Amino acid sequence: MAKGDYLAEFEIYVMLAVLRLGEEAYGVTIRREIEERAGRPVSIGAVYATLGRLEEKGLVGFQVSDPQPVKGGRSRKLVSLTPTGRSALDHSTAMLQRMMQGTSIAQES
Amino acid sequence: MRSPPPLSRSVLSFFADGKVREDILENLQEEFQEHVRVIGEPAARRWYRGQVFRSIGPLFWWRLTRRDAGWRTAVRNLARSSIGKEAQYALRSLLGTPGFSLVVILTFSLGIGANTAVFSLVHSLILEPLPFPGGDRMVQLWRYEEFEGQRRALFPPAAPMVAAWQESEGVFQEIGGYTEEEFHLTVEDGVVSVMGVRVSPEILSMVSATPLLGRSFGEADAGSSHGSVALLSEEIWENRFGSDVSVIGRVVGIDGAPHAIVGVLPSALSRVLESGFFGAQSKGIFLPLVADPAGGWSGTPNILARVEPGLSITSVQERLEVIQSGVAHLIEGQNEWFPLAISAREALAPNFRRGLWVMFGAVGIVLLIACANIATLLLVRRLARGDEMNVRLALGAGRTRLAGQLLTESFLLGAAGTFLAFLTAAWMVDGAIWIAGNSIPEFQAARLDGEAFGFAVAAGLFTVFAFSFIPLLQLGKLDPAGALARKRPRETRRPVGWTAHKSLVVVQVSLATVLVLSAGLLTNSLGRLLSVDPGLDTEGLAAVGLDLPRSRYDLGTERISFFDGIVRGLETHPRVSAVGWARFVPPRVAGAAGMVNVEGRPPPPERHMEGHAGNWVSPTYFRAVGVPFLEGRAFTQAEISDEAEVVILNRSGAERLWPDGGGGVGTRIQLDSDYGPSPWMRVVGIVPDFKAWWLGDRPDRLQIYLPVSNIPPRSGVILVRASGDLGEIATLVQGQVRRLDSALPVGGAFWVADAFHQSVARQRFQTFLLSGLGVLGMLLAILGVYGVLSLSVTRRTREIGVRLALGATRGDINRRVLGQGLRAVALGAAIGLGFSYLSSELLTDLLWGIEATDPATFLTCSGAVILAGLFATYVSSRRAMGIDPVEALRRE
Q: What is the 3-state secondary structure (H, E, C) of B620-650?
């Protein structure tokens, strides 16, 4: 990975949420997932700005789902990790783990 | 379906990038509907607004920074707008005259930079509340004794007073105590002495001391002298324990007793503590204050408290006095004590408040000169471009449009200048801290912050408008019809703005005169201070401080024989010519207030306590510091071992005690102080006066020297007169100390001359700063004078040519130009002198040994200003003399 392509903290959150949500991943669910898990308020703007940035880097992709099976249901823009995104996430989290090894943080977790 | 708040929706649409706008709005809409169902519509709308509000930042930032960002388009759009056109035009015209633009920007950045730097000093040292919650409500609590209407030295409050304050309601939120101490810390390679402080848990909570590691003190940690728990400063933790995390829980020896380390305090905190609360030295160790079994703290610690919100210092003082009336009878033997509350902020910077305000005034003057200078430059430029403006007016440009363009130019110059100014200020503050060094430790707290930046921007705007003002006024006077009808403006008429020009010269010169004069006075005063003879022979005199641990040197005789042993060991060394020891080294001897009774003479009816200097000295002390005896002799070894009641006085002291002569040696005196009268002591010697406290100390201060056996000190100073450098002398002393006690830490050696030099560090710093400002102001003013006169010469080229052609000599021309310039300069200098004379009161506090209206300084400084003005005038008149009449007329 080129220098400067490291993932920022919030980018990692978003990507982990996408990974976790699988086929359910779109704006609303990603926002809630992070809000609930990280326990901090997250704005939809922050989520989309990050998704936009990740898309520019080629780490996530969008695809439009079929319309919702309800009256007037709209189609959703679902998010998924690209293979590059997946490996970037692995790389970042592995680095984090290596950095934590042997510190008090690692013992607590 | 409910619809979300429309305004929020449009705000979001505005900020969101087109690519994601729809998605975001849809997502929000979906969640909004859900919220309406679950928490009701009003709450859902609030939620929606919150989401929009918090989304703006990230979305906007993304748009700015994304790789295919639209900001280039935005810039292009802005450039097409009218403001953009204006700015482009202004930029082109500024770049067309790079020399002019550069000089203006540099002048701007120097003027505003110096102001911002001094502002940040004033702000962080005087104005800003202490950097912890409720810092503005922090007070120091003292007691003082009133004597004949005069407030005497402050003392830490007595225990009953503290107890009463703690019980009182509605005054204090928290009351804590602290004492400063020097500790001996046992580390791997021996014992080091570390300044430390004993604190009650309240103090740490008041200054929000969150430990970097481990915990802070709790109620259960009340200290005892037999060891308990300790906190380290970050610095000691790094330097002595290698930043080892496992230090928590480790037991170390402090003053020979085991202490468990429970935490490390961040250096940011120790800096706050260093900057004044606990004296000026950095503190490495924090121990809990020793509790008194009877309740409260043992001894009389210094007291720091945080008062309830909304109480002014005056109302706190009133409350204290009410409380005091209830406890006065409890304080042993004293009913004349009064409580005193001092705002901690003010207590921190008592020494240089006045100095800093004067500096602030001085940089303000520099800024005004800079403004006048820039205004001059703009005028020069404007006059040079008078025709351009006239043409533009004639072609139909509105005056508003021209004014807008002038302002845009000024604004661009100001923006560039302010940016540079902030950098300049950062360097200046760093420089000031570096120069102040360790001698003014409070300065370490100074820094550039948001407020300083705000100040710089405000000063920048002020300057822009100040210097644009005159050129704007000129706009109204433009006369396109007249100017274009004649081929050239008539030179017999005064050029546009000439009066404004001359008055700018006068203003600049008068302001520069004020600055140069103040700098001159301070320099003169410092020169006098530095040339003061300290009264003792400091040449080759070094001092080394030693502290004896209480645990191993409990008895006074042990302490005396230790120091004596070192002196004896050094005496025989071939390189040492004299050696002695004392409790203190001048200029850092003790001070006390008291009265002196003379045996066989009734005390005079009107007596007042006076501050005197004192020291406890060994028999060879006076020989070591090179002070001869005027009468009598030094203490003898026998007097030390017999603990004889003897005393040595200085000449001025003796003259005051025995005004008619006689007496002196052989007579007995008694010291009467706060602690009650001392035993009668026989005067055995009289020594000349020398400076006890600082170089500027009053010459006739009473100085009292007692034998070391009077109160055998735990810490003392070895004074060595020897050949060689400091390191060699330190090694010499170290060797002797090792021989007697290998576990004792030895402090660094220092020259006594340096200590005297150090005693005027504040004066040196102020003088340095003000001189710098004086030089800056003068340079700017010279530039201004030169600029105006050169302009005048350029404008009058033809006139001068005609005069020369008609037979005027170059000398005549020279005299004319010189005369014109000198009149303005002299007028400016005279106004500056008058102003300085009227405001001399302001400087009085900063001066030593010189009047604020010292005629010699006034004369030399105004002479210097006029000379500088003459120089600037001469350079411009040279240009006038160089004019070739043929050339000048041919241009017609």
A: CHHHHHCCCCCEECCCCHHHHHCCCCEEEEE
